[in-house]
C-alpha cells in the first residue's frame, strides 16, 4: 500500500508539473516581458538598492534697499511679466549650482567623488556606473542628478536638495554649495559696483577734459579779441553813448533857446561846435558796439557760444561727480545678499529610493509595453492574408 500511494503521489506531481510547464509555455512571453522585469526590480529595490539620504536647504536672494510694492491683485494682472527684484540673481545662482564650475570649486574643498564612490553602495547607484568611463564629465552628469535645485516663483525661494549615501555627506555638500552661492552673490555685487564706479569715473574724466578745453578756448578768444566780457563792455559803451546823447539833447535845447532870444549871441558857434563834437563821439561809441564787423556785437555771438559750452561742461562735471559719489556710496553697502531660509539638515532617515513606488512603476511600464506589443501582434495577424 505504501508503495502504491507513493507512486500515485509521484504521478500527481508529474501531472501538476506538466500542467505548470504547459501554462508557462503558453504564457512564456508574459513571464519573460512582465513577470521577470518586475521580479528583478523587486529583488533590486528590495534587497540590493542602497539607502539614499536627502539634505534640503532653502534660500532667497534679497536686496536691503528694496521694499515690496503695495499693489492690488487686479493691478498686478496688468503689470509686465518681467523678473522681480532678486529673481534674476536667484536664476544666476541656480545656473551656477548646475554648472561645472560649482562642482570644480566643491571638489577643491570636499572630496566629493570619494563620497559617491562608497563601496557600501550598490553598483548601480555609486559612481562610476557600469559601462561608464571614470572621467570628470561623467561624474558631472552623475552629480547633477544628485543635486536637484529648483525655484519656487510663489515664494521667491530656491530649494536645494543633495542626495548622498551618508547623512553627513549630504549635509556637508549642501552646506558647501550654500557657501559657494553666497560667495557668487558677493562677486556679482562687487562686479556690478566696480563697473558702475568705473563708468562714472570715465564720465568725470570726459567732463573734466571738456571743461578744460572750453576754458582754454574762451581764454584764447578773449586774448585774441582783447575782450574780457563783450556783453558787459557793450553795456558800458552804450551807457557812455546814452550819457552823451542826453548831453547832446541838453546842448541842442540850449542852442535853440539862445538862437530864439539873441540870434547874434557870440556863444552860438561854440555851442554848435560842441554839439557836432558830441555827435561824432556818439557815432564813434555806437560803432564800437554795433554796425561794423569789428564791433562788440559781432564778437558777442562767438563769445556766448564759448561761454555756454563752458557752462554746460561745468554742469556735466558736477553731475558726473554727483553720480560718482552716489556709486561710491552704493558700493559701501551690499546690493543683494543670500538669506538662508532653511539651513541644511542632517537626515536621520533615508528618503530614497522609494522602493515600493519604483517596483509598481516598473511593473506598470512593462505591463503597458506588453499590452501594446500584444495588440500590435494581434492586429497584424488579423489583417494578414490567409494562406
Automatic annotation (TrEMBL):
One Gene Ontology molecular-function label: protein tyrosine kinase activity
Assigned GO CC terms: plasma membrane
Highest taxon in the source lineage: Bacteria
Coiled-coil intervals, chain numbering: 178-224
Coiled coil as UniProt keyword: yes
InterPro entries, per database record: Bact_polysacc_biosynth/exp
Keyword flag Protein biosynthesis: no
Swiss-Prot/TrEMBL keywords: Coiled coil, Membrane, Transmembrane, Transmembrane helix
Transmembrane annotation, as ranges: 29-48, 359-381
Protein name (database record): Chain length determinant protein
Protein source organism: Edaphosphingomonas haloaromaticamans
Amino acid at each position: 500500500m505504501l508503495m502504491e500511494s507513493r507512486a500515485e503521489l509521484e504521478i500527481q506531481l508529474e501531472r501538476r508539473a506538466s500542467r505548470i510547464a504547459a501554462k508557462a509555455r503558453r504564457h512564456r512571453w508574459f513571464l519573460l516581458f512582465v513577470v521577470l522585469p518586475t521580479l528583478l526590480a523587486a529583488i533590486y529595490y528590495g534587497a540590493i538598492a542602497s539607502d539614499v539620504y536627502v539634505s534640503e536647504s532653502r534660500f532667497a536672494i534679497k536686496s536691503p534697499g528694496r521694499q515690496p510694492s503695495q499693489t492690488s491683485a487686479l493691478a498686478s494682472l496688468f503689470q509686465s511679466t518681467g523678473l522681480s527684484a532678486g529673481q534674476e540673481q536667484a536664476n544666476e545662482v541656480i545656473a551656477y549650482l548646475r554648472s561645472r564650475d560649482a562642482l570644480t570649486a566643491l571638489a577643491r574643498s570636499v572630496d566629493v567623488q570619494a563620497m559617491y564612490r562608497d563601496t557600501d553602495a550598490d553598483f548601480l547607484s555609486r559612481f562610476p556606473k557600469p559601462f561608464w568611463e571614470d572621467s570628470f564629465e561623467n561624474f558631472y552628469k552623475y552629480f547633477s542628478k544628485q543635486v536637484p535645485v529648483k525655484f519656487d516663483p510663489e515664494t521667491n525661494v530656491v530649494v536645494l536638495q543633495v542626495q548622498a549615501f551618508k547623512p553627513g555627506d549630504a549635509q556637508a555638500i549642501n552646506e558647501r554649495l550654500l557657501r559657494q552661492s553666497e560667495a557668487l552673490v558677493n562677486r556679482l555685487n562687487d562686479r556690478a559696483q566696480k563697473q558702475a564706479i568705473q563708468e562714472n569715473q570715465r564720465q568725470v574724466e570726459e567732463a573734466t577734459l571738456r571743461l578744460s578745453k572750453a576754458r582754454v578756448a574762451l581764454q584764447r578768444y578773449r586774448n585774441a579779441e582783447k575782450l574780457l566780457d563783450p556783453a558787459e563792455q557793450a553795456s558800458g559803451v552804450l551807457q557812455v553813448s546814452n550819457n552823451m546823447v542826453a548831453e547832446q539833447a541838453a546842448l541842442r535845447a540850449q542852442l535853440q533857446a539862445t538862437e530864439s532870444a539873441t540870434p547874434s549871441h557870440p556863444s552860438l558857434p561854440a555851442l554848435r561846435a560842441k554839439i557836432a563834437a558830441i555827435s561824432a563821439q556818439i557815432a564813434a561809441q555806437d560803432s564800437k558796439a554795433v554796425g561794423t564787423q569789428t564791433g562788440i556785437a559781432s564778437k558777442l555771438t562767438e563769445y556766448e557760444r564759448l561761454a555756454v559750452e563752458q557752462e554746460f561742461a561745468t554742469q556735466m562735471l558736477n553731475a558726473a561727480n554727483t553720480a560718482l559719489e552716489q556709486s561710491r556710496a552704493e558700493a559701501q553697502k551690499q546690493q543683494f545678499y543670500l538669506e538662508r531660509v532653511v539651513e541644511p539638515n542632517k537626515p536621520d532617515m533615508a528618503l530614497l529610493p522609494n522602493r515600493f513606488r519604483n517596483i509598481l512603476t516598473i511593473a506598470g511600464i512593462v505591463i503597458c509595453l506588453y499590452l501594446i506589443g500584444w495588440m500590435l501582434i494581434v492586429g497584424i495577424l488579423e489583417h494578414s492574408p490567409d494562406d
